[in-house]
Amino acid sequence: MISNEHTAAKAAANFRLRYGLGSAPISDLNDLIESRLQIDVAILNMAPGLDGMVVQDPETGQRIISVACTLWPERQRATLAHELGHLELGDFAKDGVIECILRTSEEIRADAFARHLLAPSEGVTGFLGGIQKTRRDLNEADLSRVVRYFEVSTQIALIQLDRAGWLAPGQREEWSSLSVGKLAARHGWTDEHQASQQKANTPQAPMRIVELAMDAYENNLIGLEVVARIRGLTTEKVQAELNEYGIMPKPVELPTSRFGRRK
């Protein structure tokens, strides 16, 4: 019987092959999903306990992946990759919605897909080999480098390192309590991590939908209030932003009226 781990690893490898990603880190997963897969991505304030979900329009087939705002950017990336895993693995969406709450076999498999997609074993081995490291001789700074390079949580990094044979006995357990924030603080990349936290905690509407809304606004089809509502901002803030860049609705050309004597 083929395991969830094997199925997920194969699906992640096939995905990387299909989109020419090699084994390098995926620098902008949101953009990859929106631009290459044509799937909308939204970052939203969600109810506690809900990290992400997939919704599919039953009529158009258009899909949207929503992930929660968070101060843990690595967790948000993993959630986004997890939701993508559901789609890649063909998981059934009841009523067009996949909510990731219960720890079902499908959830465990999607977790494994996310791990292999974000930090493939070949990529981890290539990275460590490139900085002249040898197996079972890593230190905490090396773990920090892997976490930062692949933009993953400590737990994902440790699992992948362990599975690829890089950790000495006991290291996975010894380092499991290290948070990304602590690694960043100890190894010099706190500013970078804080910038990522700010981005991950900021709501963001799907790029395609905002683009369509802006086109409609510039062509006098919708008002600025609609654009602001889609983006989750105040009308005043959006107005100030558009004023800064000189963006405004096109002038309305009224038809010329002709008045003359009736015959």
From TrEMBL:
Q: Any idea where the IrrE N-terminal-like domain is?
A: 36-160
> Tell me, what's a Pfam family for it?
Peptidase_M78
Q: What is this protein called?
A: ImmA/IrrE family metallo-endopeptidase
Q: What is the lineage of its organism?
A: Bacteria, Bacillati, Actinomycetota, Actinomycetes, Micrococcales
